[in-house]
Amino acid sequence: MNVHETEKLYALFEFSGISQADGAEDADIIIFNTCCVREGAETRVIGNLGIIKKLKEKKPSLIVAVCGCMTQQQAVAEKLHKRCPFINIITGTYKLSRLPEMVKRIESGEKYIFDLELDLTVPCGINVAKRSDNVNNFVNIMYGCNNFCTYCIVPYVKGRERSRRKGDIIEEVRQLINGGCKEITLLGQNVNSYNDGDNDFYTLLNEISDIEGDFWIKFMTSHPKDLSDKVIDLIAEKDRLAHYIHLPLQSGSDRILALMNRKYDIAAYMKKIDRIKKKMPDAGLTSDIIVGFPTETEEDYLLTEKAVRQVQYNNLFTFIYSKRSGTPAAIMEGQVPEETKKERIARLISVQAEIANKKAAECIGKTYKVLCDSRDGKTLTGKTSDDRVIVFESEDKDLYNKFVNVKVTNVKNSKLYGKAVK
Ligand code: SAH
Ligand code: SF4
Fold it and tell me: How close is the Cα of 210 to the center of ligand 2, in Å?
């Protein structure tokens, strides 16, 4: 999401005649587009600002702006201003499109801008973005989140769900495809609850998959409570919908899921997984897991391991629970000690590594449709419909942004290696 927000910022700045610098040393304007989903991301921003402070001492005309989720939190933004008074612009998630204008105001002599005002309007028309390549193209379909999972800061900093108009999204996708894009990832915190007032996610996906052209569509993120059977069946049915579903489980314990306010239990989650596997035996499944949520016991953790073994994900994004100020979980009794969290995540990572290795070995001898993403033609890499990375050999090196059939010849740990075939 943030990568794409930054692509949109680049485009907006180019419209104002400001181009991308080669690096921080060359830049006249430095913008931090922050994330606050976990503490680590915030700590990194503070560390990097320390480096920028030195640059600003050498070049006082340097304009420094901090925007995004982290500074949408009023208290954090105020603290940041006190701690780093050299920052010229502090804004949040709602006014990103106004940044070029704010920069102009600073250039005209204003010393400091602090603007955390909410703006919940959904931009109409096509989102302009400076996308870095033809292979990974993000398209927002909605903003914000209504779910209030008790650990998560997102609804507080991104506001309630707002969906873009279906017609705008279709037009943006169509333009990308006409421009040669082969893979488009639809973005939203909870894509399955997309609704522009007249159309739901099924309708949107169905229409996108009927656009003429040689491409595939991926999307993220699906909330298990909202992923409908109808959408699963559509993915199975339509050639242009990639067989990849990222379905965050978060925990394998019903007790923890209820405390997280996830609004599904393991039985309901597994029912969805069973339907996906039945309709698409080749589907790639990935998930997010949080370990060490308040009150998580060894038994709860073992239920997570059990669920992970049952689903057999291709890949898992594992997180240590991070206390986010202002969320209900941050003040829950029974916070889990750091050492226990670290020990549990290490065990979970090794369980998943074993699964991923086994699943990779099962690919040997099979042929996959792969979208090549290497420009240099030296080491050829690409991704499959089920979102696995594959390294392959081919006599034809000019394969960037082309679909190729690749036969898997060997695997190293969970990594796939293969050869292009006719
Ligand atoms: N809307 C998406 C993604 C939200 S953020 C979804 O619901 O799946 C991406 C992931 O970060 C979440 O799935 C969750 O696993 C993790 N995450 C969010 N808040 C967290 C926290 N406080 N501590 C640790 N991980 C967290
Ligand atoms: Fe956060 Fe839950 Fe919304 Fe995802 S669905 S963004 S985890 S509140």
Answer: 30
